[in-house]
Amino acid sequence: MAEQERLVKKFIDSYFADNYTGGGFLTIVLLANSISGLVESFPAYQQKLTEIFNKFSEFAASNNLNISELIQKIHITPEKVIELEARLQGV
Q1: Whose CA is closest to 78, among 44, 42, 53?
Q2: Residue 68: CB partners within 8 Å, gap ≥ 6?
């Protein structure tokens, strides 16, 4: 996380060296904090997506489905993956 914070600080410093606009400073700081929070949550999203994929793979294997062939036949969207995950979990 220290590297990300350093990059955000570098961005803010370089931005304000050329474009200081007083009231815009707070906006940039809030935006940087928001982006930092989003970046921090990526591992959780990656873990959840891995869980979804693993459950899907298990489901496909237990039903003798060829995933590569299945992906080519249907258009998979994130919404469809989330819906399938919900069905697998019984939600």
Answers
A1: 53
A2: none
Distance between CA atoms of residues 37 and 45, nearest Å = 13
Ordered by start, the domain boundaries in the chain are: 2-89
**Distance between CA atoms of 51 and 44, rounded to whole angstroms?**
11
Per-residue pLDDT tens digits for 15-52: 665 555 555 666 777 777 788 777 777 788 888 888 88
pTM: 0.39
> Which uninterrupted H or E stretch holds 25?
helix 23-62
Q: pLDDT for 50-90, tens place per residue?
A: 888 888 888 888 888 887 777 777 777 777 777 877 888 77
Contact 5, 36 (CB under 8 A): yes
Rg of the Cα atoms in the chain: 21
